[in-house]
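Box 3.1. Reading complex inputs
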Amino acid sequence: GQQLNQSPQSMFIQEGEDVSMNCTSSSIFNTWLWYKQEPGEGPVLLIALYKAGELTSNGRLTAQFGITRKDSFLNISASIPSDVGIYFCAGPFLGSSNTGKLIFGQGTTLQVKP
Amino acid sequence: DAGVTQSPTHLIKTRGQQVTLRCSPKSGHDTVSWYQQALGQGPQFIFQYYEEEERQRGNFPDRFSGHQFPNYSSELNVNALLLGDSALYLCASSKDQFSSSYNEQFFGPGTRLTVL
């Protein structure tokens, strides 16, 4: 079945560094979503991507929809301590770009050292 | 503008019992989805409700059932609880399927269920 694989599994970086993480699948996706989850909270939607090759920014965050439609990337520039959390990629199940039935990657845990 | 709200925040039950979790969607949203998130994992889709009917279902047994009310709020019911049902249960709301942002789901804080 469809799976989303995120890498790296975890990252421990120094404040001020840039961060890159990615999400890959063996299946094509028509929508990519990036969420951040902090302890004790639900995931918060950061960026939504709808078109192959699309590059979208939200403050210091930039995400890209891979041109093969099988991957997506998230970059965080000049990390700060409040960037700490688990970052998930997600997309709708195969068969329709508009199912509303999301599958999630296993997450990338980010820790930032002040 | 209130976001997605869930109650209760925490719940402890014993094996074999039944539990009901509640969710109110974000203002302007009429579709509610439920997810189960085990420790260290990403959320897994349970089912989705629209117009008071279950529209889609993930790979969960019939012990998991739900309901949506006319005001779009929703309940998740789990019968005959097992130890493995211990997890964070997340509710997410979105606009209807005819909206271009249908897949953009907004999550509540979750209900932490512990089964002893």
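In summary: The mean pLDDT of chain B is 94.
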